[in-house]
Specification:
With about 400 residues, this protein is of the alpha+beta class. The chain is about 30% helix and about 20% strand. The protein folds into 3 domains: about 10-125 and about 370-390, Rossmann fold (3-Layer(aba) Sandwich), CATH 3.40.50.20; about 155-225, ATP-grasp fold, A domain (Dna Ligase, domain 1, 2-Layer Sandwich); about 230-360, 2-Layer Sandwich (D-amino Acid Aminotransferase, Chain A, domain 1), CATH 3.30.470. It binds adenosine-5'-diphosphate (ADP) and magnesium ion.
């Protein structure tokens, strides 16, 4: 055993030690899986305010993640909402590590609130740091960064409610971005989910009304972008450590998997999300080896995004192609659905795990192990409360 009473700074860690450390952590590590608190619940917030992002609790999936952690062997797993009682709850339950499965409670940039709070509390977590959470959940901010690292995304501009009525012909930015292009366009919220408030607008004349509609619903910036008429894909990507067939591996690249083509119905232009139609085998087609080059392009795109943004947790990237088949990134979902697959309904992320000999529990174990490996390798000094459990 390498962990002794020596100071943690002289402490040595490598992946081969992880299984024996996990044996200790199974019995001692107290994990909280946190879902979105409901601001309508008595005592959840001081004042109820606006949420520009459509709220969802994600509690069912939080319980599925918790169940997987328990099946993996962790003996102390709790499921807690992320309202204003969270810090007290974490303290009371003596939690060592949080798993974030929340989009936040309310207010602007809600996806970053809980990681920011955990940073303040000194609590390590599985999930994105506050800056990445915010960047990923603000499509325009993410797209600007994509452009800066040379990753294609549909040409776009934004319009904030404070800028008044949107009149495309009067705005220089519109001419710079779209030139002679007159449609079709997509108008959508910068912070949205589940295709809510995503408008297909055939001609420039319809833009102003759609932008006003997004403003009315979200009180937040609207995104106006070129409509991409091609096929649509998703690809998931997470960290370097994976668990499959009972073993951990540290890969040279992030683990990109579940390359899925979204199957549209005739006349369906915008993919109808899982909130309205469950993800069944006929809605998402796992890409096999029919188009190996395309599949590889998606995998490389996902790895590049993970690397360029220094991500440290799972994202699902939504991609669409233009008429010529070039790939454009629509968004990266900071908290993709991690539903436990059952007979009929699955999630876009878990659809392709079998290709790597992985189960749902293997994915959950991979995400947790990757975070522990990262903390033990890079940040040993800031997790003394976890190192103490290994002694
Ligand atoms: N520029 C675009 N061109 C074509 N379709 C788009 C475009 N932007 C969004 N869509 C459609 O709308 C859906 C939802 O958009 P997306 O940006 O992924 O937001 P969210 O999933 O957060 O609602 C996509 O899956 C796609 O079908
Ligand atoms: Mg999407």
């Amino acid at each position: 055993m390498v962990v002794t009473s020596v100071g943690i700074n002289s402490w040595h860690y490598e992946l081969s030690l992880l299984p024996q450390y996990l044996e200790k952590l199974f019995a001692k590590l107290r994990i909280a899986v946190v879902f979105g608190g409901n601001c309508d619940r008595q005592g959840a917030v001081i004042y109820k305010t606006h949420n520009p992002r459509s709220w969802k609790s994600y509690e069912i999936v939080a319980r599925e993640i918790a169940r997987a952690l328990t099946e993996i062997g962790f003996q102390h797993v709790f499921v807690i909402p992320d309202d204003m009682n969270l810090p007290a709850q974490l303290k009371e339950q003596k939690i060592h590590l949080v798993w974030l499965n929340t989009g936040g409670v309310q207010g602007y940039n809600p996806v970053c609130h809980t990681p920011a709070l955990l940073e303040m509390l000194g609590m390590p977590y599985v999930g994105h740091n506050p800056l990445n959470s915010s960047t990923l959940d603000n499509k325009h901010a993410f797209k600007r960064e994509l452009q800066s690292v040379g990753i294609k995304t549909a040409p776009f501009m934004t319009w904030h409610p404070s800028q008044g009525i949107f009149q495309p012909n009067l705005h220089e930015r519109f001419a710079i971005v779209f030139g002679d292009y007159r449609g079709p366009f997509i108008v959508k919220p910068v912070s949205g989910r589940a295709s809510l408030q995503v408008h297909f607008i055939d001609k420039i004349e319809g833009l102003s009304q759609a932008v006003s509609e997004v403003h009315r619903e979200t009180h937040n910036t609207a995104l106006i972008e070129k409509y991409l008429p091609g096929r649509e894909f998703c690809v998931a990507v997470c960290g370097y450590v994976t668990h499959a067939k009972g073993c951990f591996t540290k890969n040279a690249k992030p683990f990109a998997f579940s390359t899925v083509e979204r199957v549209f119905e005739p006349e369906e232009r915008i993919f109808t999300s899982m909130d309205q139609k469950a993800i069944t085998a006929d809605r998402g087609r796992l890409m096999g080896e029919e188009e190996p080059e395309l599949k590889q392009r998606l995998i490389e795109l996902a790895c590049k995004i993970y690397w360029e943004f220094s991500l440290n947790s799972l994202v699902r990237i939504d991609v669409r192609s233009d008429a010529e088949g070039s790939l454009y990134v629509l968004e990266a979902n900071p908290k993709p659905d991690l539903k436990h697959p059952d007979e009929n309904v699955t999630s876009l992320v878990t659809l392709g795990l079998a290709e790597y000999g992985m189960s749902y529990n293997d994915l959950i174990f991979s995400l947790l192990a990757d975070r522990l490996d990262y903390l033990l390798t890079q940040h040993i000094a800031i997790i003394p409360h976890i190192v103490d459990l290994l002694r």
